[in-house]
Specification:
With 402 residues, this protein is an alpha+beta fold. The chain has 2 domains: 211 residues, Invasion associated locus B (IalB) protein (Immunoglobulin-like, Sandwich), CATH 2.60.40.1880; 169 residues, no CATH class. Helices cover 18% and strands 35% of the residues. The chain is built from 7 helices and 23 strands. Strands 2, 3, 4, 5, 6, 7, 8, 9, 10, 11, 12 and 14 form a 12-stranded mixed beta sheet that branches. A hairpin with a 2-residue loop joins β20 and β21. α2 packs parallel to α4. The longest helix is centred in the middle third of the chain and has 15 residues. The radius of gyration is 24 Å and the shape is elongated. The N terminus is likely disordered.
């Protein structure tokens, strides 16, 4: 079963729209709070292909066509396959007369298939569809960043305004997810020229009928969503450890920090947008995979390529950059974490009188993917430093590894 509760409507967050090639997307709310980010594009068949990532970083796929007439609430099994990686079964639910939604397996392997794959085939009941996936890597990355930017969004209702009703269809183990259920007016086609809607397989009328082979009609959707190339990695300062900014390692990092922040020690930590960091921001800020805010100050996580980075080298690079930017008295230090020698910690301090112009704690370690993670926590602009910050991160990292 699909573990979602699907509101009947979803409101777009003003100013959240983004584009990537022929894909376009936005952030949406459920009862005034952020629900998910979704992206979509139209194919030559008239089908609109959707992807959505919700606030818990689960992701889903949807198909819609303005001329489809399906029964809301109906569910049946579909299968999807990227290139020749093998088909994966999923339960799908009709959430609107023209909209079908299915959950995607939340694994790095599947995400990587959609990022690198060229062709997606979906068998939905008695129908079969094929989609060219060019451009999905950049588009999925933009959708992920959309979640980071809007995850804390909540509408401020006008004085005296009534609550926002939400008619929903609930399934067991519900998690909120909503996707706009209608394609734009420009995508509408004549029903006679469009593809057939997905349907649950009909039961055979007799034993003889059950032995006959059903021929699956094929609808080829060959519009190329994007022709751009997908960036995979960037080098900081052109040499040294390679910084990864592709969707797969970024998604790994988001999932990891999402688990970290579930601890009571991080109850007030919130993901935030760091993509607009200006020229004065450090290299850690500009090239970080994700960022957050907390009562102690902001923080970021940077992902380095497994083959190019070592713990000592990454920390040394961070210390050198902080020292270069310091306009006051500079101090730094580094050592392995006492609780886990495989984790390295360090700090940098730039003090101007009694106030720290900048103060940063660093925690560096190998993630399960093999890539190296560098967490930077900032407590700048204060004379009082909370020295427990790196130890709190180390304890949580060790606990996740156990």
């Amino acid at each position: 079963m699909i573990a979602v509760a699907i509101p009947a409507t979803a409101d777009e967050i003003a100013g959240s729209g983004f584009r990537s090639g022929k894909w376009s997307g936005s952030a949406y709310t459920d009862q005034g709070a952020f629900s998910h980010c979704a992206m979509a594009t139209d194919y030559q068949s008239g089908i609109r292909l959707h992807f959505a990532i919700d606030k818990t970083y689960h992701w889903r796929i949807g198909l819609s066509h303005p001329d489809w007439k399906m029964t809301p609430g109906e569910s049946f099994q579909i299968s999807y396959e990227v290139d020749r990686y093998g088909a994966t079964a999923s339960d799908a639910r009709v959430i609107g007369t023209d909209f079908l939604l299915a959950e995607l397996v939340a694994t790095d392997r599947v995400f990587n298939q959609f990022r690198r794959g060229k062709m997606l085939k979906i068998d939905a009941g008695s129908q079969s569809y094929s989609f060219v996936l060019t451009g999905t890597s950049r588009a999925l990355s933009q959708t992920l960043k959309c979640v980071e930017r809007n995850i804390d969004y909540r509408e401020r209702p006008a004085p005296g305004a009534p609550g926002v009703p939400s008619a929903s269809m609930s399934l067991d183990g519900a998690m909120p997810t909503a996707i706009p259920t209608h394609a734009p007016e420009a995508t509408r086609r004549e029903a006679s020229s469009g593809p057939q809607a997905p349907q649950a397989p009909a039961a055979p009328a007799s034993a003889e009928a059950s032995n006959r082979t059903t021929q699956m009609p094929q609808t080829a959707a060959l519009d190329l969503p994007d022709t751009g190339t997908d960036g995979q990695r960037t080098a900081a300062s052109g040499i040294g450890p390679v910084v990864l900014d592709a969707p797969e390692p970024t998604l790994d990092a988001v999932r990891f920090m999402f688990r970290i922040f579930r601890s009571e020690d991080f109850a007030q930590y919130r993901f935030t947008d760091h993509t607009g960091a200006g020229a004065d921001a450090s290299g850690i800020d500009r090239s970080a995979a994700i960022a957050w805010t907390s009562p102690r100050g902001p923080g970021v996580l940077k992902v380095y390529d497994a083959a190019s980075a070592q713990l000592d080298g990454v920390i040394a690079e961070a210390i050198a950059e902080d020292a270069r930017k310091c306009r006051g008295a500079f101090a730094s230090g580094k050592k392995p974490a006492q609780e886990a020698p495989a984790i390295s910690t360090a700090f940098t301090a730039c003090k101007d009188g009694e106030v720290y112009e900048t103060y940063r704690d660093y925690v560096a370690f190998r993630h399960g993917s093999g890539n190296l993670y560098l967490i930077a926590s900032d407590q700048s602009g204060t004379s009082s430093i909370d020295e427990t910050v790196p130890a709190t991160f180390v304890r949580s990292i060790v606990a996740l590894a156990e």
